[in-house]
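Key idea: predict the complex, not the pieces.
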Amino acid sequence: MRAYLDAVAAGYPSTSPALVYLLGMLAFGALVVFVFILPVAGITSWVERRVWARIQSRIGPNRVGPGGFLQWLADGLKNLLKEDVIPAAVDVPMFRLAPYVVVAGFCAAFVALPFAGSLIIADLNIGILYISAITSLVVIGILMAGWSSNNKWSMLGGIRSATQIICYEIPVGLSIFPAVLLSGTLSMQGIVAAQGWAPTSWHMFHSPFAFVAFVMFFVGALAEGNRTPFDLPEADSELVAGFATEYSGMRSLLFFLAEWGNLYVIGVLVSTLFMGGWQVPHFTDNAVVLTVAQFATMFLKAYFWVFVAMWVRATLPRVRVDQFMTLCWKYMVPIGLVNVIGAATVMVLLPDGSIVLRLIMVTVAVAILVQFARRVLFHLHRADYGRLGRIGEGAA
Amino acid sequence: MSLELEFDDGREVFATEEMTLNMGPQHPSTHGVLRFIIRADGEVMRSAKADVGYLHRSIEKIAEKVGWHGFMPYTDRVDYVAAMTTNQAWAIAAEALGGVTVPRRGEYCRVIAAELGRICSHLLAAGAMGMDIGAITPFTHAVRERELINDLLEELCGARLTFNYMRIGGVAWDLPPGFDAKVLRFLNHFEPYVDELDDLLSNNKIYIERLANVAVVSRERAIAYCLVGPNLRASGVRYDIRKHLPYSVYPEFDFEVPIGTGRHGSVGDCWDRYIVRLDEMRQSARILRQALEGLPEGPVIAKVPRNYKPAAGEVHVHVETPRGDQSWYVVADGTEYPYRVHIRTGSFAAMSIIEELSRGLMVADLVALIASFDIVAPEVDR
Amino acid sequence: MNTAAIQQLLHERFGSGVGPVESARLSDAVEVDPLSVDEIALFLRDQPDLAFDCLNNLSGTDRPARGKIQVTYELFSYVHRHAFVLKVDARRDRPQVKTVENVWPAANWLEREVYDLLGVVFLGHSDLRRLLLPDDWIGYPLRKDYVEAPEYHGISTVRESILALPERR
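Result:
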């Protein structure tokens, strides 16, 4: 990338290289947004609706394209063409700006996400710090939206969101520490490189403390991403639509775009920090094939967590504001503090880790998963809707 | 919300400004068209004043104009979530005044229809409650089950919501052929489903935390505010019109009256009100099984003159609807029109206690409170 | 305890303010003085062998032939599981009844409803506003002589049937 831009700049000696860099980066950024971020967010919206529908015994969108796959395009198009209503009493500049701030905050996170060994826009040496900082830009956008809407429900939503993100930054930050300590670097690629492809070499199975950090990170990330059970800012049964109440058309969609896109960011972060990121066994020397395999691994791992977030959202009720604060300050922050010390202690005692400990951790995790799967199967068996059919069709 | 300094007895006090929130008439969780004027300090409410009447259709006045038979379809609209029981209340009032005896098969048909309607209404209440707490899935599951009942009732009387099934003297149509088998099949499917709802919603930790010890109504307050039905029973009063002031053929059935036990909090909290409804669905299923088993033969409707003219008199009728004791006061003056009809509904009583309960709750709790009382706005306004 | 016995008790306690048992078909009631109904209500609630802790229903009936608006209280005791009907006749031209809100809080809304639809003024009520109808509604719809205004804030209350319109050619 840089070499290419250098070459371009050399071709235009009269223009300053900085301008070329700037234009080049803008063009590249737009490309990434259109080719990757928008489709990921859009497709996530479709997947979420289908997954929900499946969980809720509904069908979900299935009309546009195969299985309704193009629904996200249709929705985007529809919302682009819709009238952008701006209520008379809102603070117009803020109201207009808010969705862009939100989208900018979430798009900027993609800069430091590692998609594969060689696929990263900028491998910042403070990558994870940068991401946790830049995603907080979202809160400014949401607060702007809530405040400028001149609607008390919106304002409550905006303030809830601000509280939420500010509070949960702390446990999330604390749960990032163990991963950073284990890797010895803040760089995203460095964190991935410190792990291997096998689960036994993932950070989450390094010690019980690392596993707790992983759980806390996922919970905190759900809270920061305004997902159920922490979707208080847009709690539709309480605050109508929260900060997005007064928005319509594309502006409204941008908020949701950021939300769905954020899901993917959360998935990538969880995978990177605790699950070995894009690591695959070195099965070939072909760099392209390897990169594709790495990308696919990363994508699947990230999407697994996206799916879990959807699942959680379809299953759990919403907590109340005070319970939400209690969870953060009385449980997660103290646990997080203890956890950092614990993880560091384990590192001091076992500088190279212990394969026995890792194996025990993996076994326990597998046992939990198996038990969970059995429970799910039991419920599926008991529900037994396949055999019922419709009551109306003929007497039994 | 802005912080300001107040000087009170010379001390500096930080105080927050009170905010007036307008919840409704169009709000996702007011279950119809209700309005609350909330005075809140941040998220904590100082008070929530209810403003009702958006769905007032002067049904009581209409009764004075349309005659005895003609009022039956209007009773559907009093409580369109459980129209069968309201039908039944009107039929019982008119029959009492006119001295009409309903044939036994007619009474059984009524019980079957009313209990199906009760399950229907409680399903919606439980599902909507989950939705108001933020869980979306229970609602769709509950509506899926409710759909099966709607299919059954559609087969019974041709309508899915406003049934107009009962008549003065009995019911409009006999059960269609094979109906009892279908109901049994539904019950076999439905009873395990209630347990599933327990797993999905009732015993969910977040759900319990949200509802336990929220808006506790003591036994005394519940009675003083005339809470009825599941709302009263959740406060620990074992009183069910079907059992303690029996009408129709309910004495012939064996069923229990579930009351709130405060399993996760205190007696009379939101969770108790929710779980009482769930238990009632199980009891309704029991009644249905017995009714289908003991279904007698014979006519379903008594001979009633088309020009129905009960002699002068007045009657107080109590019927256990899904939202509790619906108290009807009907005055006849010997003409072909009722002289006066007054309906005191369960939701009406529940609405009047909300202002007292709302003090100190959070905005999110108000939503849970409305849902736990199972308030249906048209029933408040009539 | 049946209506007659309760009437006996009330009569002993309140004297002339309590009328005899009115036996309408299917329902017995006792008529009492509208301006002392609150004391009688308190007595009914607090007397241990009566213990009417619940005001089950409160409704008004317009009886223009007698020049009265009748307010009917249906009481229920969850302690003894017995019911009792109390009636109050208010003058139609100036209907005033003492409130029982302080005895049974349920009366708050029920009395507001009766005020709203029949225009009975409950003396001492804490918040006597219209409940179901808009605050600026004129008239009391459940009175027998109520005539609907032709329009409300410019909205016609009369629906013209298109069959009554001249046929278009």
